[in-house]
Amino acid sequence: MILHYVIAFSSFVVMFILFLVISKTMNNIINHLSKSQYLLLKEKDFAQRELEVRKMIEEQTEEDRKKQEERDKLDEDNSGESNEE
What is the DSSP letter of 85? Predict the structure, then answer.
């Protein structure tokens, strides 16, 4: 009869240890997945901001180029007028 109690108690201890190991492993997996999700969201946000900045720079460059072309035209017109005088 005592052997039955020893086997039952040792089975309970083994199942408890397995439960602790499995729960710790699952907790680590969940933490890793949460960190991965956070990093992926940050990377996506960074990529979107980078795209916005790149578009803004391109727009600014285009505006600057147009302004420079207008200035060059005005300079050419002004230099043409001064040559006629």
Answer: -
User: Which two three-digit tokens encode residue 47?
Assistant: 């990529």
C-alpha to C-alpha distance for 85 and 69, rounded to whole angstroms: 25
Q: HSE-up of 78 (CA within 13 Å, CB side)?
A: 6
What is the predicted pLDDT for the residue at 83?
A: 54
pLDDT range class, residue 71, cuts 50, 70, 90:
confident
- Between CA 70 and CA 61 the distance in angstroms is 14
Give the residue carrying structure tokens 């052997």: 3
Size of the chain in residues: 85
